[in-house]
Design a protein that fits this description.
265 residues, alpha/beta, 6-stranded mixed sheet, 9 helices, binds adenosine-5'-triphosphate, binds magnesium ion
Length: 265
């Protein structure tokens, strides 16, 4: 492993469900990488294998999943070879996830501030947790008083910001955002994703953004991988894929993208 190496390198990863006639190759010899401080997008229609790929990074795929082959190198070490205990340490402290439903990530009976504080205390001993909560809320552009609020007192967008603060509480190296904004309206989605891209610059965070809506990540990710039926069918710089898609499926995907910004030619 080298400092300059990519933080994440997935090599020929295969994850299957079922067997015989019922075999589903949810992830089929997939390879991709994320550089340090880089924001990379994984796009594809529903059922293409995006979430199973994301979860497999820390071996969090559903129980029925079989890791049928390949490697997941995080900082040069294969996650599929690690013990469950080691993985538990890595999840949340080095690799953080943000999912679509922020409500399920927070306990309704505790304040936002308390819950973020707990995460800090758990993962980063000896640090001033209260001060750190303030810093994190500021980082996700929420007022200090958000700390005293309960989850149900926040809007969807605010809660998603809290979730990002929570994900950053353990100062991870890699953030995996699996469709974190699809429940929000388009303007708020943009704000949240902008925030993520911004953070990746500010705190040198590597981000894997997963979405079925390419338009929403188009100008945030430096590179994009397009998934279809468990396979990566196209990859390249975002510009290249957006303006000159090669694969038929990618062309369809691009055509379906409601453009937020007019395409310059
Ligand atoms: N627990 C499971 N048992 C059997 N098959 C599963 C299971 N979970 C997922 N799959 C299958 O794996 C494939 C990939 O699913 P995945 O959730 O990764 O798709 P996705 O690209 O994230 O879709 P979406 O955009 O809807 O979130 C699908 O064909 C799905 O049916
Ligand atoms: Mg999914």
């Amino acid at each position: 492993m080298t400092e300059e190496g990519n933080i994440l390198e997935v090599q020929d990863l295969s994850v299957h469900f079922g067997h015989g006639e019922g075999l589903v190759k949810a992830v089929d010899e997939v390879s991709f990488y994320v550089g340090r401080g880089e924001t990379v997008a994984l796009v594809g229609e529903s059922g293409s294998g995006k979430s199973i790929s994301a979860l497999s990074l820390t071996r969090l795929a559903p129980r029925a999943a079989v890791y049928a082959g390949g490697r997941v190198l995080f900082n040069g070490v294969d996650m599929l070879e690690r013990s469950e205990r080691e993985l538990r340490d890595i999840r949340g402290s080095q690799i953080s996830y943000i999912f679509q439903e922020p409500m399920v990530s927070f306990n309704p009976v505790f304040t936002i501030g308390w819950q973020i504080e707990e995460a800090i205390r758990l993962h980063r001993k000896g640090i001033d947790a209260v001060g750190e909560v303030e810093r994190l809320l500021d980082l996700v552009q929420l007022p200090e008083r958000a700390a005293a609020a309960y989850p149900h007192q926040m809007s969807g967008g605010q809660l998603q910001r809290c979730m990002i603060a929570m994900a950053l509480a353990c100062s991870p190296e890699l953030l995996v955002a699996d469709e974190p904004t699809t429940a929000l309206d388009v303007t708020v989605q943009r704000e949240i994703l902008n925030l993520l891209a911004d953070l990746s610059q500010k705190v040198n965070l590597s981000v894997l953004m997963i979405t079925h809506n390419f338009g929403i990540v188009a100008d945030l990710a430096s590179r994009v991988y397009v998934m279809q039926q468990g396979k990566i069918v196209e990859e390249g710089s975002t510009k290249q894929v957006l303006y000159d898609p090669q694969h038929d499926y990618t062309k369809q995907l691009m055509a379906a993208v409601p453009r937020l910004h007019p395409v310059k030619s």
